[in-house]
Design brief:
Elements: H1 11-18, H2 24-38, H3 45-51, H4 56-68, E1 72-74, E2 80-82, H5 84-95, H6 98-108, E3 117-124, E4 127-134, E5 149-151, H7 156-162, H8 167-174, H9 190-203, E6 206-209, E7 216-224, E8 230-239, H10 245-265
Antiparallel strand pairs: 1-2, 3-4, 3-8, 4-5, 6-7, 7-8
């Protein structure tokens, strides 16, 4: 599991920064949901209390109330997972999303890439959030799912989206704290990222070569809306053993064509 931002920022600091200290219980509830969503496993009350720097009495009462409302699920061992109610909210949001609809409609009719894992993400600060996925039968060592978050500088979709921004905006997002590497292949700093984005511009698509998962390669391209603004990143994933130079070039071309088709569905010129 990647380090949580909540290990570095206390709840009091978050409330002060946002100016919304009048609703601390709501902010703490959202922090708990974010914390559990970022984890690959469940967490104990003690872990939640410690990592989010909450008073024990506050955390105990909040966890109990969230469980009663279906926001959390308490396991027999006493650990917590995200409950069913947020999943219903998420499903409702995704069902109304033009991006997700365009993704589903397009890939329902495309057989050329059906044997590959295809994902769509949106940029959220220094992360990308996955909003649509079709996982192939080929094992990659990771299963993508809507709601999953990964550091943007290491992912193919994140690089594709960052490349559409002004350099000053990239600096604003990443200069304060570049993400910790996920693998030995992950980019190490902002200068490395900018060099990678320059290579991407010359190539025509982005590449995550083992930066999020060793042995996995992802290719990425941006999707634009009717305003010409990049609103999502599209990626395909395959194993390192499948990725010959010739196949990478062919798949990169097919991916950029798919991203272009989705952009036109969203009204891009």
């Amino acid at each position: 599991m990647r380090p949580s931002i909540f290990l570095e920022i206390t709840m009091d600091q978050k409330s002060a920064a946002s100016g919304g200290a009048s609703v601390p219980a709501l902010r703490r509830a959202v922090a708990i949901l974010d914390y559990l969503s970022d984890r690959s496993d469940d967490a104990t009350a003690a872990q939640i209390t410690r990592d989010l720097a909450m008073p024990k009495s506050t955390a105990h009462g909040l966890l109990q109330a969230m469980e009663e409302m279906g926001l959390l699920r308490r396991m027999p061992a006493g650990t917590y997972l995200v409950g069913a109610r947020p999943l219903r909210w998420g499903a409702n949001f995704l069902s109304r999303s033009d991006l997700v609809d365009a993704f589903k409609q397009y890939f329902a009719t495309q057989s050329a890439l059906s044997d590959l894992t295809i994902t769509m993400t949106v940029l959220d600060g220094a992360d990308v959030v996955y909003i649509a996925c079709t996982n192939s039968a080929q094992p990659l060592g990771v299963t993508f799912r809507p709601g999953m978050r990964l550091p943007a500088p290491f992912t193919a979709t994140g690089k594709a989206l960052l490349a559409t921004l002004e350099e000053s905006e990239i600096d604003r997002i990443l200069a304060p704290a570049f993400p910790a590497p996920l693998t030995r292949h992950s980019l190490r700093n902002l200068a490395d990222l900018k060099r990678d984005l320059a290579r991407q511009a010359a190539r025509g698509f982005s590449i995550d070569d083992g930066e999020t998962r060793e042995g996995m390669i992802c290719l990425g391209a941006p999707v634009f809306n009717h305003e010409g603004r990049a609103v999502a990143g599209l990626a395909l994933s395959l194993t390192r053993s499948e990725a010959s130079a010739g196949r990478m070039l062919d798949l990169g071309t097919r991916l950029t064509e798919a991203a272009g088709a989705l952009s036109r569905k969203l009204g891009a010129a």
